[in-house]
Automatic annotation (TrEMBL):
This is NAD-dependent epimerase/dehydratase family protein. InterPro entries: ComplexI_NDUFA9_subunit, NAD(P)-bd_dom, NAD(P)-bd_dom_sf. It comes from Kribbella capetownensis. It holds the Pfam family NAD_binding_10. Residues 8-132 form the NAD(P)-binding domain. One of its GO terms (molecular function) is protein-containing complex binding.
Length: 243
């Protein structure tokens, strides 16, 4: 049993991760701006409450994100606190292909990886493909459009429950002091095909319009996108997620 601090523990990935860590017998603290059971209230941007939260912790699982706006600052603050606390093992969540796809958010995630690597703490970096939840959100956001726009690219989405399971494995293992193998979902699918699954599950009859966007970012997504070679780690398909 280990004492674990989870940042972003109330988020999309945080909730199943906290649940699985507790099911595995670990003692889990959630670092959050909002009070609640087993939460240490604080702020990664201002460092409020951070020193108390990391005290006595064996592993920090960093799942927090401000969608790029403050991620680097928050990671730097967390790593500083980890060093002061005695360098617990830091498990850092990242995204497959952040070093290949020139999106601003991906550049930020890559910068966070570099901060972790240069921090002097024991660490493990895990990259995963897009979550099923994100694909669902993209389609839901178009609910007022007469058509469903779907980028003409191939993705390998993964369930957050599968990612949470891998995080539990990494928490129990020795620090890799580097990146471990990337993980992706069980299927590679064209986004227009995912749109078809989504429409059937949600009872939508709008036509799907495949979309191509000029520029390097889309071209890189289409030709060398966020895919993982080898045996997929994830087990839950997008259709099973929708069900």
């Amino acid at each position: 049993m280990r004492s674990i601090l989870v940042t972003g523990g109330t988020g999309t990935l945080g909730r199943p991760t906290v649940g699985r860590l507790r099911a595995a017998g670990h003692q889990v603290r959630i670092f959050s701006r909002q009070p609640g059971p087993d939460r240490f209230v604080g702020d990664l941007t201002t460092c409020a409450g951070l020193a108390a939260a990391v005290e006595g912790i064996d592993v920090i699982v960093n799942l927090a994100t401000s969608l790029g706006r403050r991620d680097e600052r928050q990671a730097r603050n967390l790593l500083d606190a980890a060093r002061v606390a005695g360098t617990p093992h830091v498990v850092q969540m990242s995204i497959v292909a952040v070093d290949r796809i020139p999106m601003p958010y991906y550049r930020t995630k890559l910068a966070v990886e570099r901060l972790v690597e240069e921090s002097g703490v024991q660490f493990t970096i895990l990259r995963a493909t897009q979550f099923h939840h994100l694909i669902d959100q993209i389609f839901r956001a178009q609910r007022f459009l007469p058509v469903l726009l779907a980028p003409a690219v191939i993705l390998q989405p993964i369930a957050v429950e599968d990612v949470a399971g891998r995080i539990v494995e990494l928490v129990a293992a020795a620090p890799a002091n580097g990146r471990v193998a990337d993980i992706g979902g069980p299927e590679r699918s064209r986004v227009p095909d995912l749109a078809g699954l989504w429409k059937r599950a949600r009872g939508s009859h709008r036509p799907t319009v495949p979309v191509r966007v000029p520029g390097r970012t889309f071209r890189t997504f289409a030709t060398a996108g966020p895919l993982v070679d080898g045996t997929p780690y994830g087990q839950i398909t997008f259709a099973e997620y929708l069900a």
